[in-house]
Every structure is written in structure tokens, then in C-alpha cells.
TrEMBL record:
Protein name according to UniProt: Cation-transporting P-type ATPase C-terminal domain-containing protein
One MF term in the entry's GO annotations: ATP binding
Biological processes, Gene Ontology terms: intracellular potassium ion homeostasis; intracellular sodium ion homeostasis; potassium ion import across plasma membrane; proton transmembrane transport; sodium ion export across plasma membrane
Pfam families: Cation_ATPase, Cation_ATPase_C
Species this protein is from: Adineta steineri
Keyword Cell membrane found: yes
Keywords noted in UniProt: Cell membrane, Membrane, Transmembrane, Transmembrane helix
Coiled-coil annotated residue ranges, if any: none
Gene Ontology CC annotation, any one: plasma membrane
TM ranges: 305-324, 345-373
The organism's taxonomic lineage, starting at the top: Eukaryota, Metazoa, Spiralia, Gnathifera, Rotifera
Membrane topology of this protein: Multi-pass membrane protein
Length: 390
């Protein structure tokens, strides 16, 4: 849009040399992870645009061509120090991070590397092409683990193509995404796509693959995408009231690390609850099995009401202590559970373990102690007489 450039107060024609120089400076700032802003101006006729003229940026009522380029400004917005480590822990826990930003592709990739969304050693197709000195078209896409996709590239992608994109790459960044609903996707004038539509598309694509999708948001325009997510996380400080009402979890400190802490506590709660239930099941199954054995073999019952109450009290104490166990060292290194196979806390394998293995050991140990005490208290002779009499 610029036809001239201001160099040391002198207006020069914006030719290929100066365009290449501007693009080089733009790329250099982007590689540093800085967000760039371009400044330009245009002298307007005072008669057509007097003081107090109402400029409308939605329905543009002023010229936007033949501008004078003034310069570039790079703004550094470094991530918090804890974010890179949190991203690493999320990756080790099997959580796939997808970055959606309005920054340009160069800045988005630099930011993603700074926060470890693109891990060390991972390359995009463009990185491989630059390293080998070959055209991008000659690079095998399967050699790249990361990719940076611009919003306009998703304009005509089908759901199947988005699914393939999520399957082929483990580290994905979407750049040049507009945060405004008013941007017309059909026109494609600015080469951008609405962020809300993209987030909804990604959410549905991840859910089609069986994933549990967590979406974060803070503004009213994030509500449509949040409604598609399995877990809706809303910022408690910066979030709007409309967004908070649509959320499932309110992040009171607006800190990404709190999400990871919540995942860890959720896994710990699930594991401890499962331990408590299985522990309780083993004693109940052992009591049922021993009761059936006593009834079928006409052996006197091994306990009375007081004994059963004492056993239940001891079991409750053990189950409560298991519920407060600390997290195991590898709890955040395990892959996420498959929601199709773990709809209930106690699955068939746990029931089988409690009944066939632990329950049998408890019954055998209990009957061994029971008969041993009976023999030591002279009950054995009476049983022998009854046996021979029969």
C-alpha cells in the first residue's frame, strides 16, 4: 500500500530495493520473537477532510493506498519464566499443545520455540528446506514434526484435511488469526480467518480423534469456541462475565501453570479414589467368599456381628488413608486415559484383580488362621469324631 518511503526526511520511491530491506528488517524482528508494527502516513486534502471529520475504520471512508512508509517498531513481550517448563511437563504428560495467535508466521514460530511449543530438535518444512538449501516443495512432509499454518491456508480445508494435519504433526502453530468476528472469511481480503471459527474447527477435529479438548478464553468472542470444548477454562481476572458464565473452570490467578497443577491433582484424585475402591472391594469379596464356603461346607461361621463391624472399621481407615496418598513420581509422565475404555473408575480388570487374586489370598489366609486357632483350642478332636461318624 505504500508508494514512498521516508529516509532521513527525504521521500523516496518504494522500489524493490526498499521493499526487500523492509521485509528483511521485518523478518529479523520476527525471528527475535518481537511483534512488529508498521507506521505510515498520508497527507489528506484539508478541504475534503477538515478538522473534526469522522473517520470510520469499519466502512472505510478515507484513502488507504499510496501511503508513505515511516518505519517499523518491534515490541518485545517475553513469556513468563515458568511457561517453558510447564509446556515440557504438559508434553511429557501426553497433552498436545496447539498455539493460535494473531502474530505473523515468523514471530509465532519464534515465540513457540521460546516457550517450547516447538521443542528443541523439531523442524518445520521451511526449516528443513533452509538447512538443506532446497525448495520447500522438495521436502518430505513426514520429516517435519512441527508446522506453522497461516489462517488463510485453512480457508478451504475440509474436516478430513484438518484431521490429517493433526495426525501428521505433533507441534502445530496457527498464525495470522484474526480475533474479530467482523472479519469476512469469504472475501479473504486480508488473508486471515476468524479466530473463533478456527478454534471451533480445531476443537471438533480433536474430539473426532477421541481427545479431551481444553479451551481457554477470556473475552466474549471466545464463548462460541468454548462451548465446543470438553473442558472450558476461563480467566478469572481478565475474563468477562459472559465468558465466566460459559466456563467450567475459573482460573483465579490467570496463570497457565495452574492448569497443569489442576491436571496433576485430577490424576491424583482419580488414582487415589480407584485405590480406595479396589481396597474396599477386596475385603467385601473375601467376606462373601468365606460366607459361601462356610454355608456349603457346613463349617461354623468364623465371625459374628462385632467381628464384621471391627473389620469394616479397619477397612474404612485404610481406604481413607489411601485417598490422601501423595502423587507418585511418574504421575505426570503417564499418557492420558482413553475415555472410551475408562468411562467408570473401577473397570473389569480391577474387579478381576480384587476377586480372583487378592480376594483368594485373603480368604485362604483367613481360613488358615481360623482352622489353626480351632485346632489349638481342641476343636479339632470333635471335628475328627464327627468326620468319622459321617
Amino acid at each position: 500500500r505504500c508508494s514512498t518511503i521516508s529516509i532521513d526526511g527525504v521521500d523516496l520511491e518504494m522500489n524493490e530495493y526498499w521493499r526487500a530491506a523492509c521485509e528483511h528488517a521485518y523478518s529479523e524482528l520476527g525471528n527475535l520473537g518481537e511483534r512488529t508494527m508498521t507506521f505510515c502516513d498520508l497527507r489528506l486534502p484539508a478541504k475534503e477532510y477538515p478538522i473534526g471529520y469522522s473517520f470510520d475504520v469499519d466502512e472505510v471512508n478515507f484513502p488507504t493506498e499510496n501511503l508513505r512508509f515511516l518505519g517499523l517498531v518491534g515490541m518485545s513481550d517475553p513469556p513468563k519464566r515458568a511457561i517453558p517448563d510447564m509446556i515440557k511437563k504438559c508434553r511429557s504428560a501426553g497433552i498436545k499443545m496447539i498455539m493460535v495467535t494473531g502474530d505473523n508466521a515468523v514471530t509465532a514460530k519464534a515465540t513457540a520455540r521460546a516457550v517450547n511449543i516447538i521443542s528443541n530438535g523439531s523442524e518445520t518444512i521451511e526449516d528443513i528446506a533452509d538447512r538443506l538449501g532446497i525448495p520447500v516443495e522438495s521436502v518430505n512432509s513426514s520429516d517435519a514434526k512441527a508446522c506453522v499454518i497461516q489462517g488463510n491456508d485453512l480457508h478451504n480445508k475440509s474436516p478430513e484435511e484438518i484431521d490429517a494435519l493433526l495426525n501428521n504433526y505433533t507441534e502445530i502453530i496457527f498464525a495470522r488469526i484474526s480475533p474479530r468476528d467482523k472479519v469476512s472469511i469469504a472475501e479473504g481480503k486480508y488473508g486471515i480467518i476468524a479466530k473463533e471459527r478456527l478454534r471451533s474447527m480445531l476443537c471438533l477435529a480433536c474430539q473426532r480423534q477421541g481427545g479431551i479438548v481444553t479451551m481457554t478464553g477470556e473475552g466474549t468472542n471466545d464463548v462460541p469456541a468454548l462451548q465446543q470444548a470438553s473442558v472450558k477454562v476461563v480467566m478469572g481476572i481478565a475474563g468477562t462475565n459472559t465468558c465466566k458464565q460459559a466456563g467450567d473452570i475459573l482460573l483465579v490467578d490467570d496463570n497457565f501453570a495452574s492448569i497443569l497443577t489442576g491436571v496433576e491433582q485430577g490424576r491424583l484424585l482419580f488414582v487415589n479414589l480407584k485405590k480406595s475402591i479396589v481396597y474396599t472391594m477386596t475385603s467385601n469379596i473375601a467376606k462373601i467368599m468365606s460366607l459361601l464356603i462356610c454355608l456349603l461346607t457346613t463349617v461354623p461361621l468364623a465371625w459374628g456381628i462385632i467381628t464384621v463391624l471391627c473389620i469394616d472399621f479397619i477397612n474404612i481407615t485404610g481406604a481413607i488413608s489411601l485417598a490422601y496418598e501423595k502423587a507418585e513420581t511418574d504421575i505426570m509422565k503417564r499418557p492420558p486415559r482413553n475415555p472410551k475404555n475408562t468411562r467408570s473408575i473401577v473397570v473389569f480388570s480391577s474387579i478381576l484383580l480384587a476377586s480372583s487374586f487378592i480376594g483368594i489370598i485373603q480368604v485362604a489366609t483367613g481360613f488358615f488362621a481360623y482352622f489353626l486357632i480351632m485346632i489349638n483350642n481342641s476343636y479339632g478332636q470333635q471335628w475328627v469324631r464327627i468326620y468319622f461318624f459321617i
